[in-house]
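Work through what follows:
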Amino acid sequence: MNYEQALEYLASLSRFGMNFGLFRIENLLALMGNPERRYTTVHITGTNGKGSTTAMITAMLKAAGIKTAMYTSPHLTDYTERMVINGQPISRETFGEAVGYTSAFVAAMVEEGWEHPTEFEVLTAAAFYCFAAAGVEYAVVEVGLGGLLDSTNVIIPCLSVITNVTLEHTDRCGSTVVEIARHKAGIIKHGVPVITSAQGPALDVIKAVAKEKQAAIYVVGEHFSGTFEGFKENRQIVKVTTQPQTLHVEVNLLGQHQVENAATAVMVGMRLAEKDKRVTLDAIKNGLKTVFWPGRFELFPGSPPVVLDGAHNPAGAEALRRTIDEVFPERKITFVLGILADKDVVSICGALVRPDDIAVTVEPMSDRAADPRIVAEKITASRIEVATSITGGIEQALLLAGEKGVVCVAGSLYLIGSARPYILSRQNHS
């Protein structure tokens, strides 16, 4: 397949919906010769911060001179972003080849009478094959949704990582933090160490599962911690205290929440260093200094400066607001918000927007998008505008935002995915 054919094929699989369970992908990978077993993996789940932490760990391994892959979802603008090798998304040609190769085994599996895999299961299998074919040594794998029944949970990692746990995907993973934590803790494997920044009742669940699985556990605030110490050249300086070492690192991602993510990533690096001497302190530091994660407090200078952030739940919105106040104190903020209908719109807007802010609501490019007029009704701000374009409206929304203060685009990764290429092209032509 070429890239376009691969996208058409994947789109055809949407009819199988989101169907939890591991038996389909286990059978598919078995037919493919279990490519996921041909390299060492680190598995990451959590509510917020899992993408940033995945990027940090990947950057550390790359800085160590190790051929490393990263699997994340969703993508912002191109499917190839989900499969990254040595810091670069795979080519469209490679993506098409991987999906085409996997589709042949899907056909064989269905012919044998097995249930048809879902789109995400096929993507995951294709990624695992692609990484094996490229000869990577490590793959850092982010969970798609939850953990226990997620398609990625077929791997046996060398480390399991669980960032924070708050309410999300309540229709799939449970209506309480405890129920959601059980899904997240589902990635814990027998005897495989766990590193977590979870707290409260969620941590109790994770500790109980780790004990049951005889897995050593390292907890933020108990075994490691991070402290913000200031800024240097658009990076933040973080003191990370572990046992038995303290590091001062420069983190190329802004925001107080990235302090904890960085500490978690450093702890992962320390554990990896015990088994792989290439993972040195210098590699850990250099990885954090160069890590890049688009659409997560990504700042585009200009007049006005524009911040893109994929915050799409209340905890993420709270972290984004703290970072805005930290980086842009006493600046007028205009929010361009596009939120999905199945999200907690009221809590997200309440965490982000203050009465003296300006808000522009827009429809993200998704069939799950909330009506921007309904979102506008949930906001209290000095001025509220609604972008009415039926094509996502990001250009109109940015015009409505004006040229004063700071503009922050947030509320959905789908919105970031449409906003980012437009802002990049606008900068390139300025």
In short: The chain has a mean pLDDT of 93. The longest helix spans residues 92-111.
